[in-house]
Design a protein that fits this description.
single chain, 182 residues, alpha/beta, 5-stranded mixed β-sheet, two-stranded antiparallel sheet, 9 strands, 21% helix
Length: 182
C-alpha cells in the first residue's frame, strides 16, 4: 500500500519478522512509520520510496551479526545509491527491490543493539520525544538516511577495496586517522 505524507510517497514492509520477546511488530511498524513521516516533513522526494525492516533470517550479511555486536544495519545499495537516485529523479532503478530502511539481526528478537535493549516508543512522536537512551525510531531513521546517500564508502574501503566513493565522500577527508567534513 502506497502511503502519502507531505507530498512524498512511500511503502513500508516488514520481512521475515520472528516472534518478538519484547515489543511487537505493530509497535515497530508505528515507530518506523513515524520516522518516515518525520523525514517527509523535512525533505520531499520523487517516486515511491520502498522502506523495509528486514530480519536477516538467511544470514545474507554473513558474519556481520556477532554476539553483543550490532543489532541493525543500513538497508540499501551503497554502490548505486538507488534510493538516492529515486528520491531525486523519481526513477526506480532497482525496480521492486526495497530502497531504504534497516536490516535486523536474525536472532534480534528483543530489539537490542550492542547487547542492550533499545527503547521502543509506545506512542512514537519524534518531536515530543524525551528519550534519554537509544530508541528504535531514531535507529530506523539513522539507517534509512544511510540508504538515502548519507553514507561513506571510503570509510569502509577495508571491506571492499573496489567500492567507489559516494557523493558524501566528496565532502569528507581523512586527517590523522579521523574523518572530517571539508
Amino acid at each position: 500500500m502506497v502511503i502519502q505524507h507531505n507530498g512524498s510517497e512511500y511503502t513500508l514492509s516488514i520481512v521475515n519478522a520472528p516472534e518478538l520477546t519484547r515489543g511487537s511488530i505493530t509497535l515497530l511498524e508505528a515507530n518506523a512509520d513515524a520516522a518516515i513521516k518525520y523525514l517527509a516533513d523535512h525533505i520531499r522526494w520523487e517516486g515511491v520510496l520502498d522502506f523495509v525492516i528486514y530480519w536477516d533470517s538467511d544470514r545474507l550479511l554473513g558474519d556481520y551479526w556477532k554476539e553483543g555486536g550490532p543489532g541493525f544495519g543500513a538497508w540499501g545499495d551503497h554502490r548505486e545509491m538507488s534510493a538516492l537516485v529515486e528520491a531525486t529523479t523519481g526513477v526506480d532503478v532497482n525496480e521492486g527491490v526495497f530502497d531504504a530502511g534497516m536490516w535486523v539481526g536474525p536472532d534480534n528478537t528483543s530489539i537490542s543493539d550492542y547487547g542492550e535493549n533499545i527503547y521502543i516508543d509506545p506512542d512514537p512522536n519524534p518531536i515530543d520525544d524525551d528519550v534519554q537512551s537509544r530508541d528504535f525510531l531514531s535507529t530506523f531513521l539513522h539507517e534509512s538516511l544511510h540508504g538515502l546517500g548519507i553514507w561513506s564508502n571510503l570509510q569502509h574501503i577495508g571491506y571492499d577495496p573496489e567500492i567507489p566513493p559516494t557523493k558524501f565522500d566528496t565532502l569528507t577527508e581523512k586527517i590523522g586517522g579521523k574523518w572530517f567534513f571539508v
